[in-house]
Design goal:
About 45% of the residues lie in helices and about 20% in strands. The chain has three domains: about 140 residues, no CATH class; about 120 residues, 2-Layer Sandwich (Nucleotidyltransferase, domain 5), CATH 3.30.420.10; about 130 residues, no CATH class. Strands 1, 2, 3, 4, 5 and 6 form a six-stranded mixed β-sheet that branches. Strands 9-8-7-10-11 form a five-stranded mixed β-sheet, with helices on both faces.
Length: about 400
Amino acid sequence: MGERIQLPLELDDFDVLSSQVIDGVLEVHVESSFPTACFHCGSVGVVGHGRCRRRIRDRSVGRPTVLVWHQRRLCCRDCGRTSRERHLALAGRRSVTERFHRQLFEEACRRPFAEVASAHGVSHYRVVEAFDTRAPGAVGPVGQPRVLALDESAFRRRLRFNTVLFDPLGRRAISVADGRDQHAAELLLFSLPSAVRAGVETVVIDCHWPFRKAVIEAIPEARVVADKFHVLRSVDRAADRVRARAGHQKNYRGRDGGTARQNNPRNDPVVYGARWAFAKRRHTLNARQAEGLGVVFSRHPKVAVAWVMKEAFAAIYEAHDRAEAARRLAVWEHNLGAAGLPELDAVWRTLQWWREPILAHFEDRQTNAFAEGVTNKVKVMKRRSYGFRNLQRYRLKVLLTCSC
């Protein structure tokens, strides 16, 4: 049974003959009103040669919509050939309209392909075809970014990684390259026009040496800034290893019996219970947490030293200029020898090669926060899509989905 409804078509040169809902699908019967011409020779000397009905999927109007085009068949008096009338909105032999094809692409940029296909009642192939056709032309120009950021993203965990180039001030991803080594980073940077590279002032990276060498090779005039979060995290983790070492009870004998970590007899419960308070900054501690840390520090003075050292390193980033930051870093390095903590000594052996990028943060206070946020968005995108197998499609998906 069908239900007749009134519907504005919003397609030029078409008239609606009738519309009705049949089994939950809106069918709109239309015919063309534009002048006819021969498709082969362009002659307007054509005569009607019958009609055929062509079903074409259109964008949804509250429910799946199908256009039933009463398409005219034409016979040319000049060339003698037959053809069917054509319209740009219903291009070629495709069984969907251009606007529905564009709608599938726009939704595929934000949602998984299978989810879009299910929502519109079309095949997965139809959505992928719409995305692959329109995505290469939808990637915008690079522009003239002042700041660039490099970060890695896993295409397949433990198997393949990608390097992503970001414009953090423009809030978008610029390009993606296979691999996470120096060659991949150089491929991204050298793909930028020379005029664009000349305008780049700062490149923000985490403490990954191949990225640093690539930036020096491709944009030697740019300022390399080590990301604040990664630097602080490395020091905080080293200090936490001191706490964990102090909380390990050396006199314990026997097996654990599979107990949870907080009840594990190998661990001092007081030290283990203070792990979250130990990770917080001084100004964020409440009275109860400060009291708990005081108990731990009285039992294990080395833990107190580690906490003071990590807080002193965090205070470097509170300096108002580079000169003050350099002074605080020099004091921290001097006190490191007196602290006698091998965990902090080990992390500083790495960070000392990043002294200049760390201090460069105070010349242009840029971070990798936007890049890390996009990387997390990429992870969510992959989980919702149950992974990708086509690297080129994945690259375009990242660029279009993760550009704000």
